[in-house]
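Hi support team,

I'm opening this ticket because the web form for multi-chain structure prediction keeps timing out on my end. I have pasted the exact lines I submitted so you can reproduce it. The total is 586 residues across two entries, so I didn't expect it to be a heavy job. Is there a limit I'm missing, or should I split the entries? Thanks in advance, R.K.
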Amino acid sequence: MALTGPGEPGGSNPSALRSAGRPGDGPPDRDAAIVVRGLRKSYGDVVAVDGLDLEIRRGEIFALLGPNGAGKTTTVEILEGFRTRDAGSVAVLGCDPGSERRRIKSRVGIVLQSTGVDPYLTVAETIAMYAGYYPHPRPVDEVIELVGLAAKHDSRVLKLSGGQQRRLDVAIALAGDPELLFLDEPTTGFDPSARHEAWEVVRNLATLGKTVLLTTHYMDEAQNLADRVAVVAGGRIVAEGSPSSLGGRDTAIARIRYRVPSGLRPPAELDGVPDPDGFVELRPADLTATLHALTGWALEHRATLDTLQIVRPSLEDVYLHLTDGAPGSPS
Amino acid sequence: MSAATLTVSQIGYVNKAFWRNPSSAFFTFAFPLMFLVIFTSLLGHGTVHLDGRAVHQSTYYVAAMAAFAVITACYNNIAIGVSFQRDAGILKRTDGTPLPPAVYFTARVAHALFVAVLLVAITVTFGALVYHADVPSGAALLRFLVMLLVGAASFSALGFAVTAVIPNAEASAAIVNASILPLLFLSGIFIPLGDNSPSWILWIARVFPVRHFANGMQAGFLGTRFDWTDVLIVGAWGLAGLVMAIRYFRWEPRT
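Hello R.K., no limit was hit. The queue was backed up. Here is the completed structure from your submission:
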């Protein structure tokens, strides 16, 4: 599959990316699998989606990352055609899921957050049944192989473990050979090994050239799988970019951490309250200048700064910063 | 696949799942026969007067239990089965696929019909062997089959319709039984109604479809008068159920 934009050298500016998705910015991208502009949805007084913009290119794995109640599932279910929207425009594979849902159904695969299958059919029967609903299904055995359920080919669904049932969900979504796949929290409630198995399946999808929109509240899931990530909080996108550049974490807010050498007192602009490990943490506006000042001061006092660290925010730091205090709403 | 072949293959999967679910298969098939034996043992030694004819109570029960079996297979099974599928997210998943809803409904109804016919055949065979009940034949058989098909389709439609008031799967059996059990009693399925039954009971029997359906089934077995009005009333209830189902059916759990 083609790796997309945000993998460009130097990372990308998330705000620039986002502004490309604003209304009135020219014709929609022909390579776009999903284009969302100004999407709004309320349940009674509760605003679930509040002016959300999104653009997902064909062939990319895109993660919507956000806390429970941020509006991820509502957004995805509007894209899938399960929910109506209050305002905004939505195009999924060039069609409006509100008015042209029937045209989309045979071209997308959906893995819902909680969903079941008949427990008394076998894995192969279940996939064959769903494959029969689509005009150009993928061979059943190929799908079973793809999700790693070959050993369970003739097992009844009720004999499968939780992780295996989730893989069956993915298999069913793949049965119709869709262009676009929705995965709503595919690994919630999994143990670590089941999650890694599920990630392997999603990576296999990428090699097939499928577009994948996945929602998750797991940082590592977004980091491991996605080409691009958008953080949703309070029903809108608060940041968007590749996992390594999200929120400007590759370029911004690096912190300096060091232990104050004993017997010395740094100047006020370099001082701080030490944490339990004895580290003082600085958040300099200008990293180079502050570092120069700090090392200059240490040399001047013939002190060593062996514990000096320059720390970049982890994806989790960025995420927590972005979603801090975000209002929750029913998902 | 065309809609027809898709429907046939869908019936096949519904059928497979039905027989592999031990409790649904057991209750659907065991109850009518069990009730037939119990009621005939308790009450089956006298005669019932229908249309001025004396009918053996055992024969009466064979017809009544055949009607009961059809109602169980169609109304109860569809209402409870669909509620469980809805709660489990199976219906929502189906709604996300290109499967035409009509194919889904048709396959469920056709399968219920198939089970109903099978149940009637078993009940009739059992009744003929054990209780020497009459078996419908000739023109009576044709009229009997018309009533059977109209009844099975109508009670299936009502089964779909009632899912609109079933909040969740746990409540489904209670709501289904609360809606059908009193009617079965008030329509003379378990205890024959006579001319001296209270008039309010007779009126309820006249309004709701169960008595009319049982009348049509009985005509085949007992040689009583077959009244096309019974077919029309059952069909009207079925049509109302269909309209309700189309209007209020939900693919998602009603949480």
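A quick check on our side: Chain A has two domains: 5-107+179-249, 255-312. Let us know if the file doesn't open in your viewer.
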